[in-house]
Write a structure and sequence with these properties.
By secondary structure, the chain is of the alpha/beta class. It has one domain: NAD(P)-binding Rossmann-like Domain (Rossmann fold). It is built from eight helices and nine strands. The chain has a nine-stranded mixed β-sheet with strand order 1-2-9-8-7-6-3-4-5, with helices on both faces. α2 packs across α4 and α5 runs parallel beside α6. The longest helix is centred in the C-terminal third of the chain and has 14 residues. The protein is globular and about 40 Å long.
Amino acid sequence: MTSWVKQKRLCNVCGSCNHWDGAPRKHEPTPEGMGPQAVTIVPGQGGETVTGVRSLMTRTLIVKAKHNTRGCFLESDLVKAIRNKTARIVVIGLGYVGLPVACMFARVGFQVVGIRRNNEKIAQINRGICPIEGKEPGLPELLAEVIREGRLRATTDYAECRRAQIALVAVETPVDKTTKRPGYEALRATLQGLAHNLQPGTLVIIESTIAPRTMETVVKPILQEASGLKVNEDFYLANCPERVMPGKLLANIENCSRVVGGMSPETAQATVELYRYIV
């Protein structure tokens, strides 16, 4: 298990980016207000997988990564857009997971478009009316605010993905009561719709609850085959499983630790950069 260390220096390959080579390096403390993070790489089939864990006890960042010889991803236009909040975000699935996440990214200043199949729910959201049943403290007010200020809108059109730098998938994956296996029908359909509109350079993040290896066996193949693009070459793919409970949606997103996995170290780092704004 990698131990916690404080940050000290930048990449010793290029001297400017946030890559590291080999063992964990010491770095400068995480910027105030950005939230403490830990990131460590574990070997994964088909590439390295990065896991990021938010610590409530210390402001440190652990990284074990190799410099990306294809270029400094963390100094890319995407990461700069995340840091400047100019990255356009599409959230596919506006239920218990997707709607509060979309609202929270919109609240901190991102332009967000939500995609959902139900036209009636879309109309409600665009009027600033929360379609989620039950009491959700703060969510109706937040939705009304970001709709009123023009930072969030909803649609059924997957073509919106063509204009996005970040696509976040948050559709349901219900478990079958008989087989006890998750159902990926909605996920597969969503991935197809996204893939047909996927543009090079996009960061795709899966928040839906999925079983181990689903990223490799379901998500990655669909996105690559339907789009004709390649992970880590043309677009980036990460997993950040949701951790919410009805009745506490906003509180759970803000206060619960998150795990981030990426198909490359650089992808996971970019995803951590994004989620720092709302976690």
